[in-house]
Amino acid sequence: MRALLAGLPYEVLSAQQAGVADEVEEDGQTLEQNALKKAHSVAKQTGQWAVADDTGLFIEALNGRPGVRSARWAGESRDEQTMIDFTLRQLIGIPAKQRGAFFESVIALVSPAGKELILRGKVTGKILETPRGTIRPHLPYDCLFLPLGSELTFAEMSDEKKNSMSHRGNAFRQLKEYLNTHELESA
């Protein structure tokens, strides 16, 4: 988040750096609900503007699963390899042409007074039959997802390359543009 918002006249801190120790339970039915819940919690606890996001992988052959439950659909273990293996098992027998998928990120910007802004980023592609690239912490699906028009999975790309075309990068570019053209009221 800090890299994607570099160059703005605002200090970007993690929730923990801002003194928020509690982790918000992501129990919403949509990405938007989860992002708003997290941002409202931080804004309320800090008295400052807060940004939060939620991301999901939506696989067409699985009726949009894992979707909003992407971080938990393989069970409460957040082990990346377990999540990769579980996803591939769900797709056994599904031909390559039917493995369409998209990633979507929703960003919520919330003021201390509760004013909300929602931004979305989306990238389409497909799920591979075999993982490719280096598994990154908290990003298990990057080695399975091949963006449309790319020969590289997200896991095979540099951070800069991935951010230039990813769902999250797209949403944060929108946020940066908004913050460059709108002044945030002070807390």
Q: What does this 3D model show about the protein?
A:
By secondary structure, the chain is α+β, with helices and mostly antiparallel strands. It has a single domain (31-181), classed as Maf protein (Alpha-Beta Complex), CATH 3.90.950.10. It has helices spanning 31-46, 80-90, 159-165, 167-181, and strands at 50-59, 66-67, 100-110, 116-127, 145-147. It has a 5-stranded antiparallel beta sheet. Helix 3 (159-165) packs across helix 4. The longest helix has 16 residues, at 31-46. The protein is globular. The protein starts with 30 loop residues before the first helix and ends in a 6-residue tail after the last helix. 33% of the residues are buried.
